[in-house]
Amino acid sequence: MGLLSIIRKVKAKEKECRLLILGLDNAGKTTILKKFNGEDINTISPTLGFNIKTLSHRGYLLNCWDVGGQQTIRSYWRNYFEATDGLIWVVDSADRVRIEDCKRELDNLMSQEKLAGASLMIFANKQDLAGAMSTDEIGEALGLNGEKFKTRHWSIVACSAVEGGGLLEGMDWMTDDISSRIFMLS
Amino acid sequence: MDKVDFGCLEDSGEEILIDGGDSNVSEEDQYFDEIVGALENILMLEEFNDLQNDFCEQHCEVFEDTEESKLVYTDLFSQYTELIEGYIIGRLTLEIDDFSMDKFGALLADRQDEITGDVFDMLMSFTDFEEFKSLMLSHKNQGEGFSGGIDGCLGIVSKENFAVGGTGAGIEASPMKMAAAGRKDVLSPASREAKDAGLSP
Ligand SMILES: Nc1nc2c(ncn2[C@@H]2O[C@H](COP(=O)(O)OP(=O)(O)O)[C@@H](O)[C@H]2O)c(=O)[nH]1
Ligand SMILES: [Mg+2]
C-alpha cells in the first residue's frame, strides 16, 4: 500500500465504509440511492458515468458509489472495486428477459479478487410492478445457493425504489454485516 | 507518470532539530518526526505546487459542474494521486537516509491519534475524489487567473519561511494553512480582478 492510502486508512473515521452499487442498466440503482437519501426521484436519467453520495445511517458514514450499468461501460466497473466494503447488486425483478445477463455479470464480480471480502446485498427491486419475480425466483436464477456464494456474506431483499419499501431493511443488513466483520464492535 | 527532476532544489539539505538529550524519545519517534518534518517541507515546495497546478491545467477542461461524474474523472484522479504520491516518496527517499515506506507505514498505523494537523489533513485531501473534482472545476473556472494568483502567494510564503532558517517552529502552522486556504479560495479578489481585467480567457 502506498503512503496516501495508508494515511487514509489510519485516519479514516472509525465507522466509515465504502459501498459499490452495481447492476444492469435500468435496474434502479440511482433511484434507490436518491430515494434512500430523500431526494426527488422523478428526474433521473440513465447514468453514463457515476454518482457519489455519502449517507449517514445509524451512526455509519456510507460512501456510496453508483456506477452506470450499460453494457458498453461495464468494463469500467473494475476501476471502482478498490477498498469496497459492501457490494449492492440491484436487480430489476420485472426484467425476466435479462436475468441471465444479470447472473453472468454478478458471477463475474464474485470472481474478482478485489471484491472477495465484500458483503453482498441484492436488492430485488421494482416489486411494485405486476409480474415482478420473487426473491426466491431471483435467488434461483442467480444461483445464490451455488458454490460461488458459499463463503460470501450475502442477503437478498425485496424492495421498491419508487415506493421505498425494503430499502431500509437492505441498508440495515449491509451496515450490520460490515460492522460485524470490520469494526468488531463486541 | 510524469518525471520530476529532484535536482534543482536548494532547500533539500534541511534537517529538523530533535532534542538529543531527551532519553524518552525513542529512535522510532525520531525517525517518525524526521519524516513528518520532511513532509511539511515538501508540501510547501514551489515545485510541488507547480506539479499540481500543471496537472490541473492540463486536465481541467473535461470537468463539468454536474452532479454526475464522468468515468474519465476516475482515471484522472488515480493519475493525480500517483503523481503526487510519486513526487512525495521521491523527495522523502532523497531527504531521509534510510527512508522505507514499510517502516513509516507501520509507524503511522501505531500512531492513529498523533496523525493530526495540517500535513495529514492535506495528505488526506489528496485521496478525496470530491475534493479533486472541485479543485479541477475551480481551475477550469478561473483559467489563467487562478494559477497565477496562487503561485505568487505560495512563492512569497515559502521564501519568507525558508529565509528565517527553517528551525522547525516557523514551518509548523501558518504557511501550510495559507497554502491550503489558497487552494480553496478560488474567488480571491486578486484573481477576480485579474479575470475582469481580461488576463484570463
Ligand atoms: N416501477 C418501478 N420503477 C422503478 C423502480 N426503481 C426504478 N424504477 C424506474 O426504472 C428506471 C431506471 O431507474 P434508474 O435508477 O435510472 O436505474 P439505473 O440505471 O440502475 O440507475 C427509471 O425509469 C425509474 O423510475 C421501482 O422500484 N419501481
Ligand atoms: Mg443510474
Descriptive notes:
- The complex is a heterodimer of chains A (186) and B (201).
- In chain A, strand 2 and strand 3 form a beta hairpin.
- Helices cover 29% and strands 23% of the residues of chain A.
- Chain A has helices at residues 3-11, 29-36, 99-110, 135-142, 167-183; strands spanning 16-22, 50-57, 60-67, 86-92, 119-125, 154-158.
- Chain A is globular and about 50 Å long.
- Chain A contains five helices and six strands.
- Chain A has 186 residues and is α/β, with parallel strands linked by helices.
- Chain B is mainly α.
- Chain B has eight helices and no strands.
- Chain B has helices at residues 27-44, 46-59, 71-95, 101-110, 118-125, 129-163, 174-184, 189-196.
- In chain B, helix 2 (46-59) runs antiparallel to helix 3 (71-95).
- Residues 146-201 of chain B have low confidence and may be disordered.
- The interface between A and B is medium-sized, with 21 and 29 residues.
- The site of guanosine-5'-diphosphate has 20 residues of chain A, from helix 2.
Per-chain topology:
The complex is a heterodimer of chains A (186) and B (201).
Chain A (H helix, E strand, L loop, with lengths): L2 H9 L4 E7 L6 H8 L13 E8 L2 E8 L18 E7 L6 H12 L8 E7 L9 H8 L11 E5 L8 H17 L3
Parallel strand pairs in A: 1-3, 1-4, 4-5, 5-6
Antiparallel strand pairs in A: 2-3
Chain B lengths: L26 H18 L1 H14 L11 H25 L5 H10 L7 H8 L3 H35 L10 H11 L4 H8 L5
Bound molecules: guanosine-5'-diphosphate and magnesium ion (MG).
Guanosine-5'-diphosphate binds next to helix 2 of chain A.
